[in-house]
Amino acid sequence: MRPAILDPLFAAVTTLDGVGPKVAGLLQTLLVRPGQTLRVRDLLFHLPSGLIDRRRREEILSAGQGAIVTLTVRIDRHQPPGRAQSNAPYRVFAQDETGEIALTYFRAKAAWLENLLPVGEKMLVSGKVEWFNGRAQMVHPDFVAPLAEAENHSLVEPIYPLTAGLSGKVLRRAIAQALEKTPDMPEWIEPGVLKRQTFPGLKDGLARLHDPSDAIDLDPASPAFRRLAYDEFLANQLALTLSRQKMRGKSGRSLEGDGSLLARLKHALPFELTEAQVSAVGDILADMKSPERMLRLLQGDVGAGKTVVALMAMARAAEAGVQSVLLAPTEILARQHASGLSKLCDAAGITLEILTGRDTGKARDAKLGRIESGDTQIVVGTHALFQEGVDYHDLGLVVVDEQHRFGVHQRLQLSAKGKRPDLLVMTATPIPRTLVLAAFGDMDVSRLVGKPAGRKPIATVALPEERLLDIVKRIGSAVEGGDRVYWVCPLVEESEKSDLTAAEERAEVLRKFFGDQVGLVHGRMKGEEKDAAMAAFQAGTTRIIVATTVIEVGVDVPDASIIVIEHAERFGLSQLHQLRGRVGRGNKASSCVLLYRPPLGETASARLNIMRETEDGFRIAEEDLKLRGEGDLLGTQQSGMPFFRLARLEHHADLMEVARDDARLILATDPELKSARGEALRTLLYLFGKDEAVRLLRSG
Ligand code: ADP
Ligand code: MG
Question: What's the mean pLDDT when you consider all of the chain?
């Protein structure tokens, strides 16, 4: 159960003054993912993006147009709107030595203003100055206070990211109350770390950020900011380490083999494994042999050749007499894997079966029978693999392809089908090291660097969309020469329908030039239609395939050598990289055309430049991290919420490793978190919503 000390922070926000259902609704959209319960804590975790410093006093005459200034003025006179003009503003004139300014209020009550701004009083007013016909005015000053009292007010005010309808004032007031309600919590950070890093306590750290006294307090390098980042990392790493312990458990199983199937496979392969592949296979076979359970991430750029590594692992499992599953994120990919792998498996005498949601009736029953009896050694499929009614004879290895969106929870579920099967997760997104720790800190990592030998670089150009017809001509001659072309149309306005229209319209246009050599594949098509479209392209019946981003992950057509990406400016860097990886898979020279609609914004133009400069997925991922923060790389962009709420990886990456080491040390010495510090750490886990990790503790 959550420690009672956290109760005030887990109360509903409506318990705060000034927060009714309407404001709570706005806060909900601003602060948490859809469906998540909004708590007072979430206000604390909403950090300012900057501040307004009202300490510097200025004079009316020298205040620039649009500047936010603080003035010391004497209230001169009030000018209420005339009776007939109820929409006219109420003006209060005030002056300093240099001139006069009108403090302008709309729909304000006279009595309230008379009380707020008494004639003759010396006051501090702060807000945005506007000049019109040589007269200065300030509409609804942000801040007014009698000079004598100004000391009592904080003249440095944090600015928060807002959402439409929510005022900064209301938000600040709510956050101030959340701060007041923050209890003194027992310290969970190790004293040595605390001292070396000169971290303040959590409560002080929060107060420093929400009630800054200077811009420097909001600097990500400030001890207060770093303290919060560290707390978040520590909670994350503790949770991952706990899940690692749980997943590994006391006993896995040792999977060994005589190498006969591996040898036959190697013989059947049309190529030699690269050094990186050999070494990854080595890591994996060693893990499988060890009695500890394998939890390994195989990280490799698009086209790096992960599939064959997985196949080797599955062959070893077959040698050991257990079954494997290969889980693909989409139907198309599952089919492609199955067709690619079955040739090799046939040659090696390994039995392989595909199972997806599309299998029904008798055929499905027959498949299920073969899976249950153990006749099938490798099962390739989609999530259907883990549905009710699918029983394995003896599942020993689970391979998850192209799936970096799996949380701890899903991973636990996934392995429920077997007797603690070994787990290999393959990710094509070249996540930078720090992010690997954040998302997969509970796994060991093998990296496939570089690409198989013989690959030619992909020539990448960025062109404005006016050049579309030129491209069409160029494609014409390429297609005549036997090339295959991907033509990608982007998501328009995030609506599936217009997305579809764009692709259909483009296919129409291209058909005018190329007739029935043009195919179309999009997300709204039925499974069989998609397969048919892809199969026709693979076979060369169609030579140009217009696609929405359904082709993004993993599809392998080695003969495709040109990819055109329309509205490239709308895609993220990692997405562009993934898409480009569809070509350059064979030994042909390939090209990638990024068509954009000018004018290009700064970020979009930076993205396209990086794409032109490099094909190195890891470098692209690092650049992406710099350009847009961590969210996209971890696939959280849909929810709009970053992976970390407080920490900023681009600034705090160094702390992640400290947190990882600390988490491992803690759990090595106090695996149940029972010591005083252990108790404090439980509070930390709850504070960051890692309740699930605490449950892992309990179930042992
Ligand atoms: P990814 O890592 O993106 O999943 P794949 O496993 O689909 O990459 O491999 C991409 C292509 O490279 C496939 O056509 C595969 O047959 C080929 N390939 C894999 N390993 C090698 C190698 N060592 N030499 C040559 N081609 C290879
Ligand atoms: Mg792949």
Answer: 87
Does 260-448 match 458-614 in CATH topology?
A: yes
Instruction: Determine what percent of the chain is predicted with pLDDT higher than 90.
Output: 55
* pLDDT score recorded for residue 675: 94
Residue 143, classed as helix, strand or coil, is strand
Q: Give the tens place of pLDDT for each residue, 11-47.
A: 999 999 999 999 999 999 899 877 789 999 999 999 9
Alpha helices by DSSP H, listed for 117-201, are 168-181, 191-196
> Is 27 in contact with 12 (CB distance < 8 Å)?
no
Looking at residue 403, what is its pLDDT? 57
Give tens-digit pLDDT for 489-529.
Answer: 875 544 555 555 678 889 999 999 999 999 998 877 887 88
Yes or no: say if 378 and 340 are a contact pair by the CB < 8 Å rule.
no
CATH fold group of domain 56-154: OB fold (Dihydrolipoamide Acetyltransferase, E2P) (2.40.50)
Q: Cβ distance 576 to 565 under 8 Å?
A: yes
Query: pLDDT class for 306, splitting at 50, 70, 90?
Result: very high
Residue 624 has pLDDT above 90, yes or no: no
Atom of ligand 1 nearest to the CA of 558: 14
Q: In what order do the strands lie in the sheet with 378-381?
A: 352-355, 378-381, 323-327, 395-401, 422-427, 295-300, 444-448
Distance of CA 91 to the CA centre of its chain: 49
Backbone dihedral angles phi then psi of residue 387, each to the nearest 5 degrees: -75, 165
Q: Place domain 458-614 in its CATH homologous superfamily.
A: P-loop containing nucleotide triphosphate hydrolases (3.40.50.300)
State residue 673's pLDDT score: 93
CA of 556 to the centre of ligand 2 (A): 8
450 φ/ψ sector (left φ>0, alpha ψ -120 to 50, else beta): left
Ligand 1, CB cutoff 6 Å, lining residues: 271-274, 277, 300, 302-308, 428, 452, 554, 556, 558, 585
Q: How far is the CA of 572 from the centre of ligand 1 (A)?
A: 24
**How many whole angstroms from 663 Cα to the centroid of ligand 2?**
33
Nearest-CA residue for ligand 1 atom 12 is: 305
Q: Whose CA is nearest to atom 25 of ligand 1?
A: 452
Side chain identity at 223, as an amino acid letter? P
Ligand 1 pocket mutation, candidates 273, 556, 557, 588, criterion most atoms within 8 A of CB:
556
Q: Which residues pair with 593 in a beta bridge?
A: 461, 564
Cis, bond preceding 158 (omega within 30 deg of 0): no
Q: Which two tokens stand for residue 284?
A: 């994996």
CATH level 2 (architecture), domain 260-448: 3-Layer(aba) Sandwich (3.40)
